[in-house]
Amino acid sequence: MMDGGVSDISCGDPDIFKDASHGMRLWIGSLKTATKCKPQEEVTKEKLMRLTKEALVKCLLDGYQTVCSHSDTFESSRVNLEQFKSELIAAQRSVVKLQQQLLNVQTEQLNRISTAVDTAVDRGIRSYSDIVSQTIENSVPVLSEEKLKKVVQEAVIDDDRSKNVVVFGLAEEDSEDLNGKIVALFEEIEEKPSFEAVRVGKVSEDQIRPVKVSLRNCETVRQLLLKAKELKTTTAYRQVYISPDRSPEERIKHRQLVDEMRRKRKKCPDIHYYIHGDHIIARDKG
Prior knowledge:
Blueprint: H1 13-35, H2 45-49, H3 53-123, H4 128-138, H5 145-161, E1 164-168, H6 178-188, E2 195-199, E3 211-215, H7 218-227, E4 241-244, H8 248-267, E5 271-276, E6 279-284
Antiparallel strand pairs: 1-3, 1-4, 2-3, 5-6
Helix pairs in contact: 1-3, 3-4, 3-5
């Protein structure tokens, strides 16, 4: 831990990531060389089938060794990032608390201004303008109450959103047992978390409103998102999918990724594209 309660990531970690990235690029390069491909999109199942058994085994072994050599690094980094996020939220709350204290101090100073002015008038010692001018010169700059509220709201919203998921495509009826539907949905992927669920958005005859599900912690959210892809293999929930509770800015960015992915699929229908994090990943269909 660093001073102030923030996790300390050792200075050697950037080199570890650099080594991991270099190792993966070398393996991808060797695979493209073996298949005589230049862009990685050209590496297909058919081209891999043309390799000799010895060459294919070598490529597979090199990839396996590369992944194994860096798997602990990636897992450790994930844990550190989760801890850093929690500590960042705590730091934001501390800032909000300090700003509230500052607002209290400013309120007290304004009260002192009023008292000083009244005293000056009563005693005929100073004029109103002298008192106000001297006090303002020595006072702390006024913090806008609107800005303070905005900081508090953003800190709370960011914390809450990380504990939510949004379910799309879940059938909606006028009188429905929404909690029962979510329980059945989660049981389909063998999860039984505690939650609160509510439909969001305006009621419409043409569209199914999404369901915002609030959970107890970020780890439960992560586990649900990992298993959400299993719904595509079911009969009842093939059209249902679970996504993170994104901010408006994140939703815009995700929509741009989806549009780009669709363009790629249209251009190269033999390649399977999907979104992972903030990147579009390409895989052979097979």
